[in-house]
Design goal:
Length: 135
């Protein structure tokens, strides 16, 4: 007992205030991260328009067709989709911006005119009012 008292006098009693502070900091960080993650999930899932290039076909030296799957959150969404045709040297040989027709369904088949033979088609995504980032 005497050695215990001597150690306490010499080195002091350990502070117990670190543990509650650490718990509070961990809880605050967890809540902030959870809020950010929820915001990201809602932002991604609530887009007015999303799109994905399904397939493309090179018809000749000046024409390419592409099938783009476009999902509109509402039939009234006025979306704009952009496609780019690329040549073998990766230069742009044609571009097309179009408004998807809701009556045509989710698969939009479009024709891209090119200045020379294309070898690939790239989807630049679709945007809608209030959705600045193409998807």
């Amino acid at each position: 007992m005497e050695s215990q008292d001597t150690l306490s006098q010499r080195y002091g009693v350990p502070a117990d205030s670190r543990r509650p502070t650490l718990i509070v900091v961990a809880l605050v960080l967890t809540v902030v991260f959870g809020g950010w993650l929820t915001w990201v999930i809602i932002d991604v899932t609530q887009a007015p328009v999303t799109s994905k290039l399904e397939t493309f076909s090179i018809l000749d030296d000046s024409t390419v067709t592409a099938t783009l799957v476009v999902i509109l959150a509402d039939r009234d969404v006025e979306a704009t989709c952009r496609l780019r045709a690329l040549a073998e040297d990766h230069s742009t040989v044609g571009e097309l911006a179009f408004t998807p027709d809701p009556d045509a369904g989710s698969r939009q088949v479009v024709e891209i005119r090119t200045e020379r033979r294309a070898s690939a088609v790239q989807s630049l995504g679709c945007t809608a009012p209030g959705q600045p980032r193409p998807r």
